[in-house]
Predict the 3D structure of the following.
Amino acid sequence: MLALSSATGFGMKLSKHILRFISLSAIFLLILGSLFLYFHSIRLSEKLDKERLEKESLLSEKIHLSRSLDELRKEFNSVIGKNRELSRIVESNQQQKSIINKTNQ
C-alpha cells in the first residue's frame, strides 16, 4: 500500500508539473499572440492612415482638375462665341464687297 501511495504521490507531482508546464505554455502563447495582434494592428493602422492621405490627395487633385476643366470650358465657349461673331463680320464684309463690285461694274 505504501508503494502505491508513493507512486500516486509521484504521479501527482508529475501531473502538477505537467499542468504547470501546460498553463505556462498557454500563457506564453497567449502573450505571444497578443503581441502579434498588437503589432499587426499598428501596421494596419499605419497603412490605413497612408491610404487616407493618398485618398485626400487624389480628391484634392480631382477638385483642382475639375475647376481647371470648368475654366477651360468657359474659355472654349467664349472663343466659340467670338468665332461666330467674327464669321458674321466676315460674311457681312463679303456681302458689302460683292455689292460694291456689282455697282462698280
Q: What stands out?
A: The radius of gyration is 45 Å.
